[in-house]
């Protein structure tokens, strides 16, 4: 069935032609190798083809059929532009080792673009698009030719036997086997990855097929219902990033929909998506954003004068948020509340948007992962360009862009006045390119004409202030009374208080200057618990015990140690004259923690006294067989700028009677670990225990 796609295949439009350039068979006929030169008409922009100077791309494909071992190996590489782009592909059909009636199919490919006239990213997208398309068509093509064989009466091909054995059996008739159904091509593949799936090649019931676990492949119904259309490569990226999070961020994995937003924001580049997602998870944890809807009540000034609110949904089922920016006194709100309160309110709006997306997904029976925002600029004037107000707006945009990517499905800007281009010039550089594409701007009453509001919102829910019939309960805004204004000092203190409402602390760790936390234990068998994230660099975590208290920390000569700074504080407690084993002892084995990891643990104390938790800069070990540093060591050292690491941590001491062997038991002590769960074991030899989970 596979060989029938040559010399050309009507089901593969880009496959124009092929010529056999080499063919070989061994003496007994068990091995048959065919090498072809395939001519492809790649679906690429005409301009790119003109710049490259080619109309067609040629590939060399080598098919090796081994009848003795019952395998078919297919290798392909590009001949065109081989000095600039290297594409390699390998496919194989093999017999399942445990069941001879089952066929295994595996496919892998790699792409290496060295240079391509400045169009490297375009070529990569074209290559991935073509590869994804070929995977989708693979199953359809093999089924097509299998059915063609069946129509011709070919439902069984006898297995190959050596020539001598064949002569002995020539008088006997071969038993007729049932026809083979279509082979299932796997739907999941990734660049420089491979995918495999075992498929029965004899008729069987669905229950007899090999079951796949959710970790290996997402259920098709689940994808359609909650995630939307995903290519095999996109599905593979989601699975790989989710598995990495499960390994490094135990107990706090975001939902697939949330992970998918970060992947889409970085065009499914796993490394880039992982970086921004880890930063966002750390940020959410530090400022307890997950609890903002339940624990934070916006000030009355916001409820009265912030002219924005949720209003039904658009035609696509997205939640609709209405913002009457032109009627809002941004200067008054900033003067009365400060920048941080406004930011926190916007965060609560975004959290509510995520919740409404989940609800609408259930209501409409299809994935809804973003919302629509309608901004009315009627009344916008130079007052809105007040510098501190614009600064606050830019800060809000920056935070939202970093932590809520791909949540804005569409932005409808209505009744834009003449002053709007000035504001747009200030704001647009801070908005992601993908987000800017979702903006639709209407001047005057243009939104009432063709291509206007009715294309996106049902007539029944157009707000009354825009000429609709639906009463909109969004506050009308208005000027904030000056009696509510506060001084800069009051606002500054309030801003600090708002953002320090977190149980976590930040610390900087320098090469040669660890950060240390002192914990005094009065009762033996108390439990020291910790939870920390490594935000930057690699660190070593230690726990020490001393019978005597260290001296109070003094300000370090670097000026950044022993003081609190925006980047985190650094405190050193262990005196330089102290000796390990004499003045203090190590009670836990050192733990190396990599950048991006989240670590939770506990230690049951054996003695009263002073315990010191230490986060120390991790020096990469040199190669044991040579004095020269390894390449990996050099690269790792370059990634840590200025030999500085950052840690966000929380510690707590719990009485032994309150600790019941599980991290979830810490809820009663208000420890902030309520969403974490991991087993803690006890050592009968030392009467101490430690639990580490990443």
TrEMBL record:
Question: Locations of Low complexity compositional bias?
Answer: 196-212
Question: Taking every annotated instance into account, which residue ranges of this chain make up the domain GOLD?
Answer: 500-653
Q: What are the entry keywords?
A: Cytoplasm, Golgi apparatus, Immunity, Innate immunity, Phosphoprotein, Signal transduction inhibitor
- UniProt-listed InterPro entries: CRAL-TRIO_dom, CRAL-TRIO_dom_sf, CRAL/TRIO_N_dom, CRAL/TRIO_N_dom_sf, GOLD_dom, GOLD_dom_sf, PRELI/MSF1_dom, SEC14/CRAL-TRIO_domain
- Cellular component terms per the entry's GO annotation: cytosol; Golgi apparatus
Every PRELI/MSF1 domain range: 1-154
Q: Which GO terms describe its molecular function?
A: RIG-I binding
Residues in domain CRAL-TRIO?
298-474
Q: How does it assemble?
A: Interacts with RIGI (via tandem CARD domain); the interaction is direct. Interacts (via GOLD domain) with SLC18A3; the interaction is direct. Interacts with SLC5A7 (via GOLD domain); the interaction is direct.
Q: What does this protein do?
A: May play a role in innate immunity by inhibiting the antiviral RIG-I signaling pathway. In this pathway, functions as a negative regulator of RIGI, the cytoplasmic sensor of viral nucleic acids. Prevents the interaction of RIGI with MAVS/IPS1, an important step in signal propagation. May also regulate the SLC18A3 and SLC5A7 cholinergic transporters.
Report what the protein is called.
SEC14-like protein 1
Q: Which organism is it from?
A: Ramphastos sulfuratus
The gene coding this protein: Sec14l1_0
């Amino acid at each position: 069935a596979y060989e029938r796609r040559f010399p050309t295949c009507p089901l593969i439009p880009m496959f124009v032609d092929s010529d056999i350039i080499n063919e070989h068979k061994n003496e007994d006929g068990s091995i048959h190798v065919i090498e072809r030169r395939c001519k492809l008409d790649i679906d690429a922009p005409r301009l790119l083809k003109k710049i490259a100077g080619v109309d067609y791309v040629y590939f060399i494909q080598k098919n090796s059929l081994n009848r003795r071992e019952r395998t078919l190996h297919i290798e392909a590489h590009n001949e065109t532009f081989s000095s600039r782009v290297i594409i390699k592909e390998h496919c194989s059909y093999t017999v399942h080792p445990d069941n001879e009636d089952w066929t295994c199919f595996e496919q892998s490919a790699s792409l290496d673009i060295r240079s391509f006239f400045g169009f490297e990213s375009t070529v990569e997208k074209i290559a991935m698009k073509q590869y994804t398309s070929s995977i989708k068509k693979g199953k359809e093509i093999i089924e097509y030719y299998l059915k063609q064989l069946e129509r011709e009466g070919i439902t069984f091909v006898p297995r190959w036997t050596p020539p001598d054995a064949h002569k002995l059996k020539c008088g006997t008739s071969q038993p007729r086997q049932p026809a083979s159904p279509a082979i299932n091509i796997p739907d999941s593949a990734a660049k420089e990855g491979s995918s495999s799936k075992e498929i029965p090649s004899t008729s069987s019931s669905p229950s007899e097929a090999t079951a796949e676990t959710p970790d290996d492949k997402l259920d098709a119904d689940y994808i359609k219902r909650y995630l939307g259309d995903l290519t095999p490569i996109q599905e593979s990226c989601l699975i790989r990033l989710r598995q990495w999070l499960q390994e490094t961020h135990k107990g706090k994995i975001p939902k697939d929909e949330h992970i998918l937003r970060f992947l889409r924001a970085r065009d499914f580049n796993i490394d880039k998506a992982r970086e921004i997602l880890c930063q966002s998870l750390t940020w959410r944890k530090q400022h307890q954003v997950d609890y903002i809807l339940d624990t934070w009540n916006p000030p009355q000034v916001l409820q009265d004068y912030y002219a924005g609110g949720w209003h039904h949904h658009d035609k696509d089922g997205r939640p609709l948020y209405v913002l009457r920016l032109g009627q809002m006194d941004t200067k008054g709100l900033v003067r009365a509340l400060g920048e941080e309160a406004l930011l926190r309110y916007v965060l609560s709006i975004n959290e509510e948007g995520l919740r409404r997306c989940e609800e609408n997904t259930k209501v409409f029976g299809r994935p809804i992962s973003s919302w629509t925002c309608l901004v009315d600029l009627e009344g916008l004037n130079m007052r809105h360009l007040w510098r501190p107000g614009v600064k606050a707006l830019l800060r809000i945009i920056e935070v939202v862009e970093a932590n809520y990517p791909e949540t804005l499905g569409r932005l409808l800007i209505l009744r834009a006045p003449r002053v709007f281009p000035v504001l747009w010039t200030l704001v647009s550089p801070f908005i992601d390119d993908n987000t800017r594409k979702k903006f639709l701007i209407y001047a005057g009453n243009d939104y009432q004409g063709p291509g206007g509001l009715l294309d996106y919102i049902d007539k029944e829910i157009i707000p009354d202030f825009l000429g609709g019939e639906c009463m909109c309960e969004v506050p009308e805004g208005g000027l904030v009374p000056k009696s509510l204004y506060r001084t800069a000092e009051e606002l500054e203190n309030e801003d600090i208080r708002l953002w320090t409402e977190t149980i976590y602390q930040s610390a900087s760790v320098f090469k040669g200057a660890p950060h240390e936390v002192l914990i005094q234990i009065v009762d033996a068998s108390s439990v020291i618990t910790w939870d920390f994230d490594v935000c930057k660099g690699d660190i070593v975590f230690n726990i020490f015990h001393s019978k005597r208290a260290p001296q109070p920390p003094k300000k370090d000569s670097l000026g950044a140690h022993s003081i609190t700074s925006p980047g985190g504080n650094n405190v050193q407690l262990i005196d330089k004259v102290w000796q390990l084993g004499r003045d203090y002892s190590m009670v836990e084995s050192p733990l190396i923690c990599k950048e991006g990891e989240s670590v939770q643990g506990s230690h049951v104390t054996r003695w009263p006294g002073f315990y010191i938790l230490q986060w120390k800069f991790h020096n990469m070990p040199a190669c044991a067989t040579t004095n020269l540093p390894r390449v990996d060591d050099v690269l790792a050292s370059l990634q840590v700028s200025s030999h500085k690491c950052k840690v966000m941590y929380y510690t707590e001491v719990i009485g032994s009677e309150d600790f019941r062997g599980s991290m979830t038991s810490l809820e009663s002590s208000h420890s902030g670990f309520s969403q974490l769960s991991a087993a803690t074991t006890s050592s009968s030899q030392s009467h101490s225990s430690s639990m580490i989970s990443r």
